[in-house]
Specification:
three-stranded mixed beta sheet; binds iron/sulfur cluster; six-stranded parallel beta sheet; single chain; TIM Barrel; 12 helices
Length: 290
Amino acid sequence: MHYVKVKGILSAKNGMNLYRGCSHGCIYCDSRSTCYGMDHAFEDIEVKENALELLEVALRRKRKKCMIGTGAMSDPYLPLEKELCYTRRSLELIRQYGFGASVLTKSNLILRDLDILQDIHERTRCVVQMTLTTWEDALCKKIEPGVCTTRERVHVLKAMKDAGIPTIVWLSPILPFINDTKENIRNIIHQCADAGVYGILCFGMGLTLREGNREYFYQQLDRHFPGMKEQYIRRYGNLYQIPSPRQKELMRIFYSECKSYGIETRTDHLWEELSRFEDKQQGHQMSLFE
Ligand code: SF4
């Protein structure tokens, strides 16, 4: 882990990454790709030392309240967050300045901050997003070795639902010949239904590979799935998009299962839900004067 000072913290779309790099070790991770120009080892987490000061200034200056997102390029609940509490403190600022939050993670460490997330959702809006890729915990430990299992993530989704916080699941990526089975898709959706998930984002059954993440992915295939790398190379060569051969059938199952459970799948609608801000306090204050 190392510290750096940065110039800005919020992106044009109000997203933030307090950390750079990630130690969860997902074998398919796109954030490893060389196009992102990281000048340090991916597991040597860069901590943006002045992130909280910058965030406070940015929130204070904003004319219009909005949702602040985190979790796009690095998980906000890395093991070092236990001690550093940057994510927790950023949520405190979001609450203090009356903004909303949308958080994407694979870690059950988010349960530590349930109190703040709930507070934010009572005042404005909070949406918690979790990525699920496989319902089998043993497979999960191979493809996402550094973070909690799907079972524990489903527990988080249930806890959020019980706290009144809406949840959205990212069903991605689906790795050809590894987790691209009908049973896997059905079981994940079943668990989402059980956990009261509002919607599932799915952009197709496959993954993307490019320079940087491809090399790491292949190393891990050699380690955990001998012979699989050769199968990928034969079938996909150097393609960026790696669709499952079962893509059509799995997408059919995805839509029909989600429909039967009343789970939202329209991506445009789900994007809107992630960015829709609501000021519940304002409505409350207005009603006092009506
Ligand atoms: S949690 Fe996300 S950023 Fe971290 S290794 Fe996994 S895919 Fe990459």
